[in-house]
Specification:
The complex is a heterodimer of chains A (353) and B (262).
Chain A (H helix, E strand, L loop, with lengths): L14 H13 L9 E10 L8 E11 L4 E5 L6 H8 L7 E6 L2 E2 L3 H4 L2 E4 L11 H11 L4 H14 L15 H13 L5 E5 L7 H16 L3 E6 L2 H7 L2 E6 L2 E7 H4 L4 E9 L3 H9 L4 E3 L3 E6 L7 H17 L3 E9 L2 H9 L7
Parallel strand pairs in A: 3-8, 3-9, 6-7, 7-8
Antiparallel strand pairs in A: 1-2, 1-4, 4-5, 9-10, 11-13, 11-14, 12-13
Helix pairs in contact in A: 4-5, 4-6, 5-6
Chain B lengths: L6 H18 L2 H22 L5 H34 L2 H6 L5 H35 L7 H22 L4 H27 L3 H13 L8 H6 L5 H27 L5
The chains are: A alpha/beta (353), B mainly alpha (262).
Chain lengths: 353, 262
């Protein structure tokens, strides 16, 4: 259901709504200017016990999620990711700030109807079979029995669980539970899918399956919001990410915006080096590593050196090296990865406690 | 396509059915039921040592077993079902659905009521089989007493749900048992107060009995010994139970609505 569930009153003279309707008709999709999730200065204070003081676990966090994007919510354990998700779903209440989903306040029944959710480390009723489990969640979503039957078969196929209809959840492996959890999250064909640490505890194959499923949802125009600390997953599938630590939002944007385009250093490997080449490379103000048949060196740009100048310097080194009879085996420029950005933002492990 | 049935009814029904299924798979309840059934059989032997009172002993012990096992189930389910949803975090997926918290709580209560009804019906059939074996007939005069036992169980379940809406199972169980015991002795306290010369104690003791008296649900002596049961002996307690349960559930909903599910 990509078309917005709104009632328009063109005839009663509301110009703004008429304008909205025209835009929707032109786009034939959910309009881009309507945010799926809007979080504005959200804070949460917890009290561990009634005699202990309040502790702020989420501190004035603001971000937005646009329609149709895969949004990664990054952060170490205890950074406030799950707290944010719980607030968005009405599981807990915020202490300060506002959040909206599909432009409506948290807890609105209509917007909840368009959300699918998979919690972290899900535990499901082990006395139910997978079909009974999907029926339970489908009925809570208000699906009628005919639609439910059709959707149950479809989502089981989508998550690769066909044939498990009669199996009790107590016999499911961790990966199977995760997949059936995902199936209940999409049983009602939601516009927004929220996944809390969906890759936790899965083997590489299971992770890939979940990743593929998220990409499939994106292809269908769904918005996917998921929290994780597995950075490779984020780099592969996310359009935008937010980094959270100690309850504060450190960065938010597209991967290109967060990851620097500048070259950090260059790895250079020479094979069958001659003595002249070795003397030349040693004369450079850089560390070299000599093995039997290769020389490895790491070239870093000098402070205040422009990218263009650094590239010229590298070219000149390559040219001279070849003149000294060397064979260039590889030359690989290294840029900041998401991991570098994450570590830079989040800092050392000790500073996270 | 969304279901045409009213959403609230569908939600109550779905949650209640799930609560019933969960209870059906609970081993503790199976063991408790087996123990209660064994006790009813044992009452046959207890009857043998009484002086021509076999049938009365069996009926008395049988009704007491229905009541005690019912109270055990009401407290066990009442303090555990909500807590389990929170502890295992299954509540997260339910709350994220278009369902209000009061629907979850009332659905849970409805599920417990169905379980209690099933327990009472099964134990009643069992008791009737035993008495039929002994007397060679079915004594329908036990039914009003069994009916009020069921109503009393609904009150106990509502008390347990009330406490579990904001507390741990241990404390909820402790408070519920406490309130159940108090409810069973307020009648004696009231009678004691009537005879007291201290006006303050008299006011206090009779006042408590008027507000909260679970002994009113005990018609065991009446049915076992064949004392007459008047219409008000049955319907007044039922009416009182309806008010008390409604009051407790409203309080529970108010607390549950504001709770953070950490």
């Amino acid at each position: 259901m990509l078309f917005p569930q709104r009632r328009f009153s063109v005839l009663n003279g509301s110009r703004r709504e008429a304008h909205f309707l025209i835009l929707c008709l032109l786009d034939l999709r959910y309009p881009k200017f309507v945010k799926v999730i809007e979080v504005d200065r959200l804070s949460k204070d917890y009290r561990q016990h009634f005699w202990l003081p309040l502790r702020r676990v989420l501190n004035s966090v603001s971000f937005e999620v646009k329609p149709g994007e895969v949004f990664g919510f990054l952060g170490p354990n205890g950074s406030g990711k799950s707290t944010t998700i719980k607030i968005l779903l009405g599981i807990i209440f915020s202490s300060e700030g506002v959040a909206r989903i599909f432009g409506k306040p948290i807890g609105d029944r209509e917007s909840k109807r368009r959300i699918g959710f998979l919690p972290e480390n899900p535990y499901f009723y082990e006395y139910l079979t997978s079909k009974q489990f999907l029926k339970f969640h489908g009925q809570l979503m208000g699906l009628d029995s005919k639609t439910l039957e059709h959707r149950a078969s479809k989502v089981l196929e989508l998550v690769g669980m066909v044939g498990t209809e009669g199996m009790y959840l107590r016999n499911f492996s961790k990966g199977m539970l995760q997949r059936i959890g995902l199936a209940q999250a999409i049983i009602h064909d939601p516009d927004l899918v929220i996944l809390d640490e969906p890759m936790t505890g899965l083997d590489p194959v299971g992770r890939k399956e979940i990743r593929d499923l998220m990409l499939h949802l994106k292809e269908q125009g769904k918005t996917v919001f998921f929290s994780t600390h597995i950075l490779s997953d984020v780099e592969t599938i996310c359009d935008r990410v937010a980094i959270l630590n100690k309850g504060k939002l450190l960065a938010c944007g597209t991967l290109d915006e967060l990851i620097s385009v500048d070259i950090k250093y260059i790895d250079m490997v020479w094979s069958h080096p001659t003595n002249e080449l070795e003397s030349f490379l040693k004369s450079l103000d850089t560390k070299i590593t000599r093995s039997k048949e290769t020389i490895y060196l790491k070239l870093e740009p000098n402070r205040d050196e422009k990218l263009k100048d650094f590239e010229s310097r590298v070219n000149s080194i390559v040219e001279k090296g070849m003149n000294y009879g060397g064979q260039l085996q590889s030359l690989s420029p290294k840029k900041d990865s998401l991991e570098d950005v994450f570590v830079k933002q989040v800092g050392h492990l000790s500073s996270r406690v | 396509m969304m279901s045409g049935r009213p959403k609230h009814l569908q939600h109550f029904g779905t949650i209640a059915l799930n609560t019933f299924l969960e209870a059906r798979h609970n081993k503790v309840l199976h063991i408790g039921g087996g123990f209660a059934a064994a006790l009813i059989i044992f009452s046959l032997f207890m009857g043998e040592v009484s002086l021509f009172q076999n049938d009365k002993v069996v009926k008395d012990v049988g009704l007491a077993c229905i009541s005690l096992f019912g109270v055990f189930v009401a407290i066990f389910l009442g303090v555990n079902t909500l807590y389990r949803e929170l502890e295992r975090r299954t509540i997260y997926t339910i709350v994220s659905k278009p369902i209000d918290r009061y629907e979850i709580l009332l659905g849970k209560y409805l599920g417990m009521a169905i379980v209690l009804l099933a327990v009472v019906v099964m134990m009643t059939i069992y008791l009737y089989l035993v008495t039929a074996f002994m007397e060679g007939r079915v004594d329908f005069s036990l039914l009003p007493a069994i009916g009020l036992i069921f109503v009393e169980l609904l009150i106990v379940a509502a008390i347990a749900v009330f406490f579990s809406s904001f507390s741990t199972p241990f404390l909820s169980g402790f408070f519920t048992v406490g309130l159940f015991v108090i409810g069973r002795v307020t009648n004696a306290l009231g009678e004691f107060g009537q005879r007291s010369k201290d006006p303050l104690f008299k006011f206090f003791a009779t006042g408590i009995q008027r507000v909260y008296d679970l002994k009113a649900f005990d018609l065991r002596i009446h049915v076992v010994h064949g004392f007459p049961i008047y219409r008000e002996d049955f319907w007044y307690p039922v009416l009182y139970a309806a008010f008390l349960i409604a009051f407790l559930l409203v309080l529970s909903i108010v607390l549950f609505q504001r709770r953070d599910f950490k």
